[in-house]
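The passage that follows is intended for readers who have already worked through the single-chain material. We present the inputs for a multi-component assembly, then the predicted structure in tokenized form, and finally a short commentary. You are encouraged to pause after the input and sketch how you expect the pieces to fit together before reading on.
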Amino acid sequence: MSDAPLDDDQLSRLAAELGALVAQLPGVRHVRARPGFGRLVREALDGLSAVVGGGAGGGADAGSSAAATASGRPVPVVGLAVTRDETRVTLDLVVAETASGPLVAREVATRLLDRLATEPLPAASLDVRIVGVEA
Amino acid sequence: MSDDPMRSAPATDDLTGARGGTDDEGSVTTERLSEYLDDGRQPYDPLIEDDPEARAQLAALARLRRMTAGLLADDAAAEPTPDPSWFDGIMSRVRLESRSGREIPLLSADQRSSLHITEGAVRSLIREAGDSVPGVVVVSCGIVGDVTVPGSVVSVDVQVSALYGAPVPELAETVKAAVAALVAQQTELVVEAVDVTVRDVHLLDDDEAEAPR
Amino acid sequence: MPIDLSGAADATLATRAAEGDERAFEALLRRHLGLMTAYATRLTSSRADAADVVQEASVVIWRELPSLQVPEAVRGWMMKIVSRKAFDLIRSRRPTSDVDDLEVPSESGAHDDPERVAASQDAMGALRAALARLPAGQRQVWTLREVGGESYADIAERTGTTPTVVRGLLARARETLTREMEAWR
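Having made your guess, compare it with the prediction:
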């Protein structure tokens, strides 16, 4: 898994940073791993060169777990899957009841895309899902 | 007795049992007495009711059963409440098996990105909206229609329990408005109707609210 | 602020939990946890085992709630899952289900510590003592029937025996218990 411009450790850090970024956006209560992330991307994407994140046991690649445990960090909840043509970002959200779900989701998407544009990675595509609303 | 959900199992499901329920000496078996008790002493069985010894045994069995219920209730009350981490452990396992339902698309500015809200999240919103109306507890809710196609028309079904004595039509209207507003704010679903049914009634909570029957 | 569900009817909590409401599920668990634990303890004769059983049962309850046809009957339904899990545990500890094992007199049930048993001043104490003296198999079968309300077929399946064996154990347990309780009176 050495084709990605960033190595697993760097990708893992990036995933963690993206999670932190999203978590402090207005209207976001929690950022959660997509259950079955690893299996999902392996089925959906061809030519995967790296898979990190997706939570502990949530299908995270061995690479991500290794990178995380080596540094003493937990496995990031945001999932990153890199192919030659795209960088797939996968996450679940719990939003605040007082906010507007669609607006929050779009704001999250915009911020993630902006952040990823500065990375030496293939064009980002996002898979963001609101799984809960909290008071 | 027949209301108790724990007594709902049939007493006999083994076809080899002697129909008469008497043993070799013709006296009534404890098993037969026990089944008779289970059935609320119906239909009336003169073999038992006219026999003083059988009736005495029946009474003894009934006493035993009452005491057993008391014993278990005693044990149950003596159980300490587990600390929050115990519940957290269960809930985190539960969350892994969450019932998210269908994925409802949201408009995305970027063509490469897909945004969704789960049906489970929307249902929790509907519950939240209904619960927020004083005197109302949502019992069941659902979205009827093809939610996976953006812009398709759906309807929302909400079944609630209302506080005894509360004016039902007004309550239903308030629930309808609250649900419609919250669904509009949090989703992009086109809701043509919100159908509210009051299917249960509850009393003010003391220890446990039970619907009057 | 989400409403307090702790007073809602069992049927309401069960229906909501079946539709995915985690708070309703937690309220349902809290309400019946004492009973479930007491039941599991009577069946396994071990507080530690009972705790494991109830934990496993809780997750199964969440998973299977959508299949519950009669929400009002959720309490009895939950107790059945507890007994199922209790016997999964018991069987895993004892791979050969030897019918004779069921007759072996057991240690006192975990609730019936010596002080409680000795202080048989009241009927309940006498019943604890009588239950403690029953062989484990009779006590389990009797608990499943009298407390859990389970059918002979289900009890037979749980204990790895037959309805005929169940009837026999039950008859013996009932006769012993009624005799001892009447003697105490």
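Commentary: Chain C has two domains: 1-95, 96-185. The first helix of chain C runs from residue 10 to 18. How closely did your sketch match?
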